[in-house]
């Protein structure tokens, strides 16, 4: 027991000494912190750093566009749809649907394909092409008449770009002037712009998609960036958006904007036919007016105009007032006889030719039998 107590006392003394040392260190640290806080200056909220920003490796903007068509589209329309699919790596295909289906069914198809945007082609009368661009399922949606379509295979332009690259979207200043153009601009950005870090996209920007407003229409052009100084080469395709209506829902809803300058293709063709008919009517009127105003006798006839009509010898005798001699009469009779003989020979030769051709036809028919 005598050996244990000194050991306990020693441990107690060490603990008390260690506690004092730790308390002293805490006091010193607190004093140093107070001094540093008095000397420190607050840093600005934003600062310029030479270090590159950390790259976001996640695919945040998850835009998927369902591109498909209805039955009844022409070959050119299908080629245009395939061209758009080739330049939009974030697009998804779908089978054609019947024209009898209601367009609201497209919202369900987009939900099944996990898409939040849609481009739908609708053909009518094998000559008119309509395009729907919609934000699924809330809206808005816009309907266009596609005009002046030229596909990549038709143009065969020199431009070429990396498949899956991201484009720059260029918009005209007119998109800032009207509210419906501003809405269409935002819709085009979300549909035609390739999302950053998309799995099927390439981390390069080597092409430009241009949207230009001209003559109440939106002109679509696709270019390749050749150099940094702005040299471009067209890739294709080419087409023109003729906006018809903008709805607040996806393929349904109230009409937000209606194009007052839009003319349906049927009405346009009817007007062109009427113009062509007016040309025919005006041409007939001109002809009748010419017949009414034309004089019956253009110029007075002269007695010498009919000098070469009929037999030359008789006409010469009438003009000179002399009678024909016996030699002239004999020569005239000889000429008539020669003419008659030549006519008879020509008839005989033609008759023989007909006989020979008939025999040849019979022989060929017998051989075939």
TrEMBL record:
Start and end of every Brix domain?
63-252
Q: What is its main location?
A: nucleus
PROSITE patterns reported for this sequence: BRIX
Q: Which GO terms describe its biological process?
A: ribosomal large subunit assembly; rRNA processing
Record's superkingdom? Eukaryota
GO CC field: nucleolus
- What's an example of a GO molecular-function annotation for this chain? rRNA binding
Q: Does the keyword Nucleus apply?
A: yes
Keywords of the record: Nucleus, Ribosome biogenesis
Q: Where is this region: Disordered?
A: 22-54
Q: Where found, per UniProt? A: Nucleus, Nucleolus
Give the similarity note: Belongs to the BRX1 family.
Purpose of the protein? Required for biogenesis of the 60S ribosomal subunit.
- The protein's name: Ribosome biogenesis protein BRX1 homolog
């Amino acid at each position: 027991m005598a050996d244990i107590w000194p050991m306990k006392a020693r441990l107690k003394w060490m603990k008390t000494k260690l506690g004092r040392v730790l308390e002293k260190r805490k006091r010193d640290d607190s004093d140093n912190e107070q001094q540093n806080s008095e000397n420190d200056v607050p840093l600005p909220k934003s600062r310029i750093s030479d270090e590159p920003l950390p790259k976001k490796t996640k695919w945040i903007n998850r835009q998927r566009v369902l591109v498909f068509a209805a039955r009844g589209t022409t070959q050119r329309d299908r080629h245009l749809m395939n061209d758009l699919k080739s330049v939009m790596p974030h697009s998804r295909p779908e089978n054609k649907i019947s024209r009898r289906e209601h367009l609201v069914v497209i919202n369900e198809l987009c939900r099944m394909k996990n898409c939040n945007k849609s481009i739908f082609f609708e053909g009518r009368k094998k000559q008119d092409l309509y395009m729907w661009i919609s934000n699924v399922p809330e809206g808005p949606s816009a309907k266009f008449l596609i005009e002046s379509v030229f596909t990549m295979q038709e143009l065969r332009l020199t431009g070429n770009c990396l498949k899956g690259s991201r484009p720059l979207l260029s918009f005209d200043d007119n998109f800032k002037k009207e509210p419906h153009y501003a809405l269409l601009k935002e819709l085009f950005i979300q549909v035609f712009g390739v999302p950053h870090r998309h799995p099927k996209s390439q981390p390069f920007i080597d092409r430009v998609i241009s949207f230009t407003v001209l003559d109440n229409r939106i002109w679509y052009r696709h270019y390749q960036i050749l150099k940094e100084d702005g040299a471009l080469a067209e890739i294709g395709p080419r087409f023109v958006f003729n906006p018809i209506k903008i709805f607040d829902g996806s393929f349904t809803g109230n009409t937000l904007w209606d194009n007052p300058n839009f003319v349906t293709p049927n009405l346009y063709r009817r007007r062109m036919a009427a113009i062509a008919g007016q040309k025919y009517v005006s041409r007939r009127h001109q002809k009748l007016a010419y017949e009414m105003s034309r004089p019956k006798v253009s110029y007075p006839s002269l007695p010498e105009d009919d000098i070469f009509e009929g037999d030359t010898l008789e006409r010469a005798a009438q003009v000179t007032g002399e009678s024909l001699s016996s030699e002239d009469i004999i020569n005239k009779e000889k000429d008539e006889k020669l003419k008659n003989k030549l006519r008879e020979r020509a008839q005989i030769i033609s008759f023989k030719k007909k006989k020979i051709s008939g025999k040849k036809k019979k022989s060929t028919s017998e051989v075939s039998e």
